[in-house]
Amino acid sequence: MTVKLSYASLATLPASVARPKYARGELSPGIVHFGVGNFHRAHQAVYLDELFNAGRDHDWAIIGAGVREFDTLMREKLAAQDYLTTVVEQEAARTSVHVTGAMIDFLAPFDVEATLSMLAKPEIRIVSLTVTEGGYYIDPATQRFDPAHPEIVWDSQNFDKPKSAFGLIGAGLRRRRTLGLPPFTVMSCDNIPGNGYVCENAVAGLAELVDPDFARWIRSEVAFPNSMVDRITPATSDRERAILRDSWGVEDAWPVFCEEFKQWVVEDKFPAGRPALESVGVTFTHDVAPYELMKIRILNGGHAAIAYPAGLLDIHFVHEAMEDKQIAAFLRKLTDDEIIPTVPPPPGVELDDYRDLIARRFANPKIGDTVARLCLDGSNRQPKFILPTVADRLKTGASFAGLALVSALWCRYCYGVSESGKTIPPNDPSWERLQAAAKPAKDDANAYLAMRDIFGELADDPTYVAAFSHALGKLWSQGVRNTLDDYLNGTL
């Protein structure tokens, strides 16, 4: 027997499935969140659910929002189950299942007036975002806001009916200012270095195109705390729906499967107030940067390191990549020799312990994370997770052969054919462009490095050009296995 998830059916769920200890009527909104995808529902919404279960801060419930067609589908699925989500936390030796109810409504995407009206309500004190690394309109090489992006140009010319999340946030702030209301705090929950600064530059950068005085007000009066977020959360497929239905008796149109581990470090800068999330494990600090740098370089850089060789070798799941002794050894050597030396440890953290934790998380056989997901969007991820580490190594004259190999593997992957001859499906918003550069790079690596919006000044550095070209040439002439062996043997 299965139970279709809804608020009315909570009492009939199997005893093994935990459910909210609070009633929906006890909650009132305090947060509008843009981007109600899997990560948000496995992370921020879970922390709030735990807080509400503890009987705390029931005036901080979430109102969902979105600006993409994807959000329309998500809203439709979640509305049919009263905005509840089943979260399945999986480790090798155990699984736990619980239903969260921290979100109480979901604004219709493309209903600009409804969204702006909600943003103008005094009880909304935080607006948060999970819109992916590529959703901030920043130039990949310079990491600066791009005012020429077509969506930003459109919003700047139609600020009363914006289409982007940042246009809606800006227009919402302007409406609050007109009404004499204090601004809400804008909190990025995306995996971007200095995400608070990046978010501020997107909101204020758009406002500068509309009204420079308003932009100055944003920069002086609106808080944009930095944060570091972490939880491995794969995409939901019919596989996950079937596991939940068959093993746990719950029918959920869009459950979230994730690892047990989660982490959230936030700059404590919330002039409009915030929920007491420190009571459920969130770290509030004056400086997020050390935690963020550690995570981005060791975890996200590590993801890139295992993703592209695994993708080229037709390995499907991430845990299967970690079972491959050669790929696991590549990750370990790269992390120890080239990444950790560029990472100052955060307070109280041993980087070797963190490295081992990351390896265990990657190897979790139950999580079902796919290599294709890790390979996704390299054009945005390489300039954030790999290339800055290269730049730091270059400054000190240290070796970066493994990091250059990671980017060469990405180039080889974007050629679009695995080593067995299988076609690699498009896996980047700029896939056509990447392929157009990767194909001639088989004979001339500079064809790929010519994407200066990605490689920046590294494309002009002869030491880097030589290392990248050498690694890519070996991949084409000797294959992935032999090239990895050369790196592991110190002969690359």
Structure description:
With 492 residues, the chain is α/β, with parallel strands linked by helices. The chain has 2 domains: 3-285, 3-Layer(aba) Sandwich (Rossmann fold); 289-488, Orthogonal Bundle (N-(1-d-carboxylethyl)-l-norvaline Dehydrogenase, domain 2). The protein has helices at 38-42, 44-53, 69-79, 112-119, 150-157, 165-179, 195-210, 212-221, 238-248, 289-312, 318-323, 325-339, 351-362, 371-375, 378-385, 387-396, 401-414, 431-441, 446-449, 452-455, 462-488, and strands at residues 3-4, 17-18, 29-34, 61-65, 85-90, 95-100, 103-106, 126-129, 185-188, 227-230, 250-251, 256-258, 263-267, 283-285. Helix 5 (150-157) packs across helix 7 and helix 17 packs across helix 18. The termini are far apart. The model has no long low-confidence stretch (mean pLDDT 96).
Give me the CATH architecture of the largest domain, please: 3-Layer(aba) Sandwich
Structural class by sheet pairing and helices: alpha/beta
Overall mean confidence score, pLDDT: 96
* Gyration radius from CA atoms, angstroms: 23 Å
Sequence stretches where pLDDT stays below 50 over 5 or more residues: none
Which sequence of strands runs across the widest sheet? 7-4-3-8-9
Q: Hey, roughly how much beta strand do the residues contain?
A: 5-15%
Q: Could you state the CATH homologous superfamily of the largest domain? A: NAD(P)-binding Rossmann-like Domain
Number of domain modules: 2
| CATH classification, class level of the largest domain | Alpha Beta
Envelope shape: globular
Kindly identify the CATH topology of the largest domain.
Rossmann fold
**Main sheet: strands, sense, barrel:** 5 strands, parallel
Question: What's the β-strand tally?
Answer: 14
> Can you give the helix content as a percent range?
40-55%
